[in-house]
Amino acid sequence: MSLLRRRKPINESSDSKPLLEKEGEEHHEEDHDEDEDDGNGKNKKTPSKIKKKPPPQSKWSCLDTCCWFIGCICITWWLLLFLYNAMPASFPQYVTEAITGPLPDPPGVKLKKEGLEAKHPVVFVPGIVTGGLELWEGRECAEGLFRKRLWGGTFGEVYKRPLCWVEHMSLDNETGLDPCGIRVRPVSGLVAADYFAPGYFVWAVLIANLARIGYEEKTMYMAAYDWRLSFQNTEVRDQTLSRIKSNIELMVATNGGRKVVVIPHSMGVLYFLHFMKWVEAPAPMGGGGGPDWCSKHIKAVVNIGGPFLGVPKAIAGLFSAEAKDIAVARALAPGFLDNDIFQLQTLQHVMRMSRTWDSTMSMIPRGGDTIWGGLDWSPEEGYSCSKKREEDDTQITDQAGAENAVCKARSANYGRIISFGKDVAEAPSSDIERIDFRGAIKGLSAANTTCRDVWTEYHDMGFAGIKAVAEYKTYTAESIVDLLHFVAPKMMARGTAHFSYGIADNLDDPKYKHYKYWSNPLETTLPNAPDMEIFSLYGVGLPTERAYVYKLSPHAECSIPFKIDTSADDEDTCLRDGVYSVDGDETVPVLSAGFMCAKGWRGKTRFNPSGIRTYIREYNHSPPANLLEGRGTLSGAHVDIMGNFALIEDVIRIVAGASGEELGGDQIHSNIRNWSEKINLQLEETQVYSSR
């Protein structure tokens, strides 16, 4: 009994004692249980009447869960990588064929069976961001990166040293050239743009198919350039235009006098337009090749995804450092991209960096309201984003007039490229009260010492300037240029020195001999080369950004004051996540890619005085049937189209000697002809020129 009385308080108070005391008491009790005295001096073992408590179990923390999860991913990844490297090279194709049936031959294999062989030398002209850039000289933070890629490849330095990377990828905000102590240069050779990142092809598929009919590096040339610079500055700093000229002349001379076929992609289309004017212009501004240089050296220019008249997407990038995808990401994670992530305020640094790249201003929409529409009209008026394509205007009968009027009433006002509020985007222009922002006093500066590292020109605007921009309510293509001058005067001062966005009144005016007009097809003429052909190849069938609904973002230090209003949606007018869409290749609207070859250059016009033959080849987008097809062989997307088998086949036939007529002439799926007819553009040159 005495033993039991001793144990009772031990049990009752055991939970309140420290763990070491509990363990000591349990050992002590076990001794009593085993050696209890029976009163005669003999030890008598009795079973313990107290249950032993199990040792405390450790809790599973959140950190343990994360480590376990990451470990599982790593093990799975390495296992899959091992299996991928261990399996036969033909296994993926075998699985794909088992699911989808036999795969078609790649275009190069197919056309080689038809007897096609390499004929004309080929020149590739990459677009913006797809060409690799490497470091030749840098600051202390870039130690060990000599001739390592800063752009393209694995992009390892973006997350290893993000601020250092931004510093070295930025250009001087005053000159548009290298900052002091930094030299970043384009990678040379076919590897400059064959892959953008590991596994993400750009030119690689086309190059491989050309190789199948006999092409090799001596008959293919990648005209790599620093895509950040203005076009003329690539010659000033790197003599890139001179190198392209020399390489083309060499290829023609070493291939029996056969002219080259030039294949520009995306912004490379505008870059090569600039080159064709530069090469024939007299030195020192031009290359001094003479007025017949293009006629002697170029067989055809095969433009792929060309933004001849600019892209609205460029406006969103310059105005708020975003496009549809970025805007959606901001909506899903409010404040995330505006906050300090790993000491990198993401969007602010992207804006600061990209606004030093003069090339981005080459893609601001050209032609003003004449091309892109005004407050109450646009060429794409009545476009339907449903799967069923809109009917031709010629098929609309008089009896359907009322129905057509209803359709037009619900059509998006695509001419309003930026609208502050969905109600403004949809309202009749007569109901919109606008206060002109031009000349507005910008007021007190919003900049402070905490904004120095992420300075953008918005910090010089002040709150009154930001308010003035919003109170103008809506912007068309013409007022967009004034808007950018207002919000980013330093950037636009550099930009307007190198690019122009209007329509020439008279192309005989001597001012159009300046290089700032050479990349604008509406302010310059094609070369005097009647035997040359120009193709425009591009994808259709994908929603492509055309106009935006904006809102003021909540004020915060160092923030970008405007952002796309992702809450704005309307399926009837192709409005989703604050973005109005039209037909195109996800980046370039059909209007920009097709208008010049459909109308502006078709036949002899003042923009095409020698009557160079032009052709449109559209490729309807078809997504991959399954994941094993990767990015697909029938894609119409802006970059993925470079792996489109139908496009590659057309390109191979052209470089092997086929003409546009032999290719089948135009191939059109969109409404580009009708949209082009709605544009009232003067195509005949005025008879009288008066100097100004």
From TrEMBL:
One family name in Pfam for this protein: LCAT
Domain of life: Eukaryota
Keywords, in A-Z order: Membrane, Transmembrane, Transmembrane helix
Compositional bias of kind Basic residues: 42-54
Chain residue ranges for the region called Disordered: 1-60
SUPFAM superfamilies, A to Z: alpha/beta-Hydrolases (SSF53474)
Start-end of Basic and acidic residues biased regions: 14-30
InterPro entries linked: AB_hydrolase_fold, LACT/PDAT_acylTrfase
Tagged with keyword RNA-binding: no
Transmembrane segments: 60-84
Protein's recorded name: Phospholipid:diacylglycerol acyltransferase
